[in-house]
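During the reporting period the student researcher (J.K.) took over the structure-prediction task from the postdoctoral fellow and processed the backlog of single-chain submissions. One of the processed entries is reproduced below for the supervisory committee.
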Amino acid sequence: MGAKIKGAGTNKIEIEGVKKLKEVSYNIMPDRIETGTFLCLSAATGGKIELQNVNPIHVTPVIAKLEEAGCYIEKSKSKIKIQAPKKLKAIDIKTMPYPGFPTDMQSVFGAMLTTAKGTSMIVENIFENRYKYTQDLNKMGAKITIEGKTAVIRGVRKLYGATVKASDLRGGAALVVAGIMAKGITVVENIEYILRGYENFEKKLRGIGINIEISKVL
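J.K. obtained the following structure tokens:
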């Protein structure tokens, strides 16, 4: 566009003003957190899906952890195929700045790991108070304890439907994933958080066979 900017890849960016910018055509990059959410959903339910229009490089740490949990994953330039086992293995996660494991994926992984075999641990190194969703997961039968920055998740056989409340975007997505995993009906309240961050979320979920509906769009 004609801008004068330097410092990409460093901790300092310098911008020199110009008189005018020119028009360009640009395709926005795929949402790596949405990609990771659907991968975790497949893993959590023992499913098999193919995601298109994604960038596997952007979710490298997510893919690595899913493979560690027992998933089989195939990657191409803009596609990811995942085949989940019947039972996931427990894993440990530490959130880090990009390109490390993303903090925005830890809650969805937390939901996914509630029924994994063994005990998983998540260490949140980026943001405080990102474990509010675990209280609602415990209402659904999960066994999660919080110790400072660490969440200890002891795998259970199954989750059960309940009425839960989203307290933020990613925690809300985690509750949707848990509801899909659970036996019975789950009602997720405060869905305005979720709808803010996922485009056509319920439509995409119905497209892969999930029985889900929004009773009120805010």
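The committee noted the following: Helices lie at 32-44, 60-68, 106-112, 133-139, 169-181, 192-197, 201-207.
J.K. will present the remaining backlog at the next meeting.
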